[in-house]
Amino acid sequence: MKRNLIFCLMFLILATLFMSNISYANEDYQTKLPKVNIGIIYEGDDDFNLKLKNSVEEEILQVLSGEYQVKFSEFKADNLATQNIIIDSLLANSKIDAIVPAGILSSYGVINRKDLTKPVIAPYIIESETIGFSLGGDRTGAENLNFIAADSFLAKDIKAFKSLTSFNKLTFITSKDFSHGTGKFFESLRKEAEKNNIEVDYIDSNASKEDITNKLDDTEAVYLSPLLVGEQETYLVKEINQKKIPTFTLADVMNDENGILAGYSHNKEIKARARATALNLELILSGEDAAKLPVHIDKSNEEFVINMKVAREIGVFPDWELLNSSKIINQDDVNSKKLTLEDTLNLAIENNTDLAAKSKEIAIAEDDLKKAKNNKKPKFDLNTTYSQIDEHRAQLGVASEQKLTGGIELNQLIFSEDANANIDINQNLYQQKKIEIKQEKLDLVLDTIKSYINTLKARADIKLQEENIKLTKDNLNIAETKNEVGISGPADIYRWESQESVELSKLSETERQLKMAKDNLKRILNFDLTEDISLAEIDANNVFEKLVDKFKVNNPWKLDKISNELIKESLKNSPELESLDYLIKVKEREYQMKKRKYYLPQVGLSAKYDTYFDHWGINGPPTAPDAHGEDEWSVGIQASFPLYDGGNKNVELAKVEKEIEQLQKKRESVLKKIEQNLRNKVTAANTEYRKNKYSQDAVESAYKSLELVRDAYSKGLVSISQLLDAQSAVINAKRQEFVTNYNYLIAIAEVQRALGDFDIININ
Questions:
Q1: Strands 262-264 and 304-307
Q2: How far from chain centre, in Å, is Cα 236?
Q3: Do 487 and 572 have their domain in common?
C-alpha cells in the first residue's frame, strides 16, 4: 500500500514538471514571435457595434496568433470628427502597424483619404458602388488601402423588401454623419430604388421628435441606418410601428426585441467580412500590397428575417413562398394564449364538453338516489271537497244543497324489501357514476397530454424541416462556387434547386400537420378554432417526476420487476375494475332482493281523518246522509305478500344470477387486459428511452459525417448523391431524436393512465 502511494506521488510530480515545461516552452515560443500592434476604431458599446469590433478581433487572433504577438489598441469614436482625429493620431503613431476601423462610419471615413502612410483595412463598406471612386477590378488601387464590400447589397435588400410588402416611397432614416461620411451611398440607394419604381427620401435622425413624426406621415416604408442605437432607435421604431409603416434595417442584426419588421440577418456576412479582413491583414504583414488585395464578399447566403410580431401589429402578412424561404422570429402571436401543459390540463377538465355532459350523469344518479330514499318517508294527502246537488233532491232530504268537507290521510311504509334494495342499488350506481367520471377525466387528461405533445412534435418537425432547407441552401452555395471555379457543371446546381423545392413542399405539409394538431387540442379545450395558442415545452422532471427515470433500465429482468410492482398499483387504483365492482354489487343486491321476495311481505301504515266544515242552501233533515255529526278517523296496518305471479320470481332470480356471472367474467377479462396493457406500456416507455439514447449518438455521428462529406464535396472528391445521403442521415437522426423523446413522454403518460393517477394534476 505504502509502495503504491509513493509511486503515485512520483507520477504526479513528474506530470506536473512535464506540463510546466510545456507551458514554459509555449510562453518562450510566444515571446520569440514578432509583435504587431493593430489600431482598432469602434463606434459604440451597443450590441451591434461591439459585434462588429469583436468579430474582427476574434478573426485576426485566429489567423495571426500562430505567427505574431497580436496587440489591439482600441479607440471609441461615434462621429466623423472624432474618428478623423483618431485616424490622424494612429497614422502618426510609429507603434501602430496597421489600422482597422471596425465600424460602418469609420470604414467610410478612411477610404477617401490620400495620406494613408500605413496599411488600413476597412471591413464594413456596404457595397463598392457607394465609395465614390472607381476600382481596379476587385482591387482598391489606392496605396495602403484595402476594404471589404458585399456585391449587390442594396439591390438585394430592395428586392427582398418589395417581396414582403408593396410600397412606392421609401424613407431612409439616418444621421447627418452617415449621409455625409458614406460617400455615394444615398445616390446608390436612389438608383437601385428607381429600378423598382420607388421614390426615396431622407430624414435626419438628429432632428426633433416632432419633425421626424410629421415627416413619417408622407412615407410608405422606412429603411433604418445601423447607426441608430439605444433610446433613439427605440423611440423611432415605436413611432413608426404605431403608424403601421413597415421598417427594414440596413445592417443591424435582426433580433426578437428591436421591433424592426425585416432585414437580412448579417451574421454570416459580418463573420465573412471579419475573416476576409484577417486574411488580407496576414497577407499585408507578409509583404503583399494592400491596394492589390480582393475587396468583395458574397452576401447571397444570408437569411432574410421577418419579425412576425411586428408584421401582425402593422398588418403585413407575407405570402407562403416568402415564409418558407425566410427565417421567422416571434412566430407565435403575442396575442396568442400561452399555455403550459398544466394550464392546458386544467382548462381541459374545466371546459371539455364531453366531460361536462358526462358529469350530468352524476347529478341524475344523485337524484335517483334521493328519490329512492324518499320512498321510505311518510306521505300526507290533504283533501277538501265542495259539492252541490239540485234543489229537488235537497228538498227530498237526500242531502244539503251545498256543503264543504275535508280530510287528511297519512301513508307510511314500515317495511319493504323493494324500497330497501332500491336505495342500496341507487347508492352503488351513484358511486359507480363517480368512478365513471374519474375514468373519463383520466382518459381526457391522457388525450390532452398526447394532443399537446403531438403539437410540440409537429412544431419540432417544422424547425427540423427549416434546418433541412437551410442545409440545402448551403449546399447549393457550394455547388454554385464549384461551378464558378470550374470544378463541376450546372447539373449540381439544378439538383440542389430541385431538392430545395421538394423540401419546401414538405415544409408546407408539416405546417398543415401542425395546424391540425393545434385544432385538435383546441377542440379538446373547447376553444374557438380561430384562436391561436402558444405551447411551452415540457419539463419531464416536473410533469412526470415519479416515473421519468423509472424506465431508464438496461436489462429485461429489472424491467419485469418494475412491471410487477406497477401492476399491483394499477389493479389497486383501476377505475375500470372499481366500476365493475359497483355494478356487481348492484346485481348482488338485486339478487338478494328477489330471493327475499319469497318470504318477506311489504308492510305499511295508513291513517285517515275526515271532518265536516259547513253547508248552504236547502238543508236536508237531521237524518240526511250528509248531516253534520262527529269527525271520522281510521288507522290501519297492512301487510301484503304475493303468493304466486305465474313463475316470474324464479325466472327473474335466475336471470340476475347469470348477469352477476357475466360481470364477474368481464372483470376477470378486464383484469388481464389491465395487466397486459401495463406491461406493454412499460416496455414501450423503456423502448422509447433506449431509442432516444441511441438516436442522440446517431445525431452526433451524422453531423460529423456530414461535415466530412460536405468538405469532400466542396473539393470535388465525392458526388452530390453522397452529400444528399449524408444530409438525409442528419435530418432522419434528428427527427428520430425528438420523436423518440416525445414518444417517451407519451409512454410515461400512458403508464400513469394505467396506474389511475397523474403527477401533474389531481383528478379526484
A1: antiparallel
A2: 31
A3: yes
Q: Are 202 and 180 in contact (CB under 8 A)?
A: no
Same domain, 99 and 7: no
Same domain as 265, residue 189: yes
Q: Give pLDDT, residue 746.
A: 92
Of 147, 164, 182, the residue at which a domain comes to its end is 147
Which three-class secondary structure string do you get for 550-568?
A: CCCCCCHHHHHHHHHHHHH
* pLDDT profile of the chain (764 residues), mean per 10: 47 49 47 88 88 93 92 91 91 93 90 89 87 74 88 86 91 82 82 90 81 84 78 81 89 74 86 91 91 77 84 87 81 74 92 88 90 90 85 70 86 90 93 92 94 95 91 87 82 90 89 93 91 87 72 78 87 91 94 88 90 72 57 88 80 91 94 91 87 89 92 89 93 94 91 88 80
Nearest CA-CA partner of 641 in 605, 604, 602, 606: 602
In angstroms, what CA-CA distances link 592 with 308, 418, 424, 656? 70, 10, 11, 10
pLDDT at 283: 93
Whose CA is closest to 122, among 221, 46, 189, 42? 42
> DSSP letter at 401?
S
Q: Last residue of some domain: 294, 321, 336?
A: 336
Residues with Cβ within 8 Å of residue 697, at least 6 apart in sequence: none
CA 102 – CA 694 distance, rounded (Å): 46
CA 696 centroid distance within chain: 22
User: Is 64 in the same domain as 123?
Assistant: yes
| pLDDT on residue 29 | 47
Residue 436 domain-assigned (yes or no): yes
CB proximity list for 694: less than 8 A, separation 6 or greater = none
Per DSSP bridges, beta strands 145-150 and 169-174 are unpaired
Domain range enclosing 138: 35-147
pTM across the whole model: 0.71
Q: Say how far apart CA 228 and CA 178 lie, in whole Å.
A: 10
* CA quadruple 236, 165, 466, 476: dihedral sign: negative
CA atoms within 13 A on the CB side of 483: 14
| CATH label of the domain that carries residue 228 | 3.40.50.2300
Please choose, from the candidates 686, 740, 692, 744, the residue with its C-alpha nearest in 3D space to the C-alpha of residue 555.
Answer: 686
1 shares its domain with 65: no
Examine residue 392 and state whether it is found in any structural domain, yes or no. no
Asked, for residue 640, whether it belongs to a domain, the answer is no
In a domain, 619, yes or no: no
Q: What is the pLDDT of residue 477?
A: 84
How confident is the model at residue 299, as a pLDDT? 58
For residue 763, which of 412, 235, 421, 352 has the smallest C-alpha distance? Answer: 352
Same domain, 157 and 133: no
For 488-508, b/e burial (b = at least 16 CB within 10 A) is: beeebbebbeebbeebbeebe
Q: Are strands 304-307 and 327-329 parallel, antiparallel or unpaired?
A: parallel
Exposure string (b/e) for 121-147, b if CB count within 10 Å is 16 or more? bbbbbbbbbbbeeebeeebbebebbbb
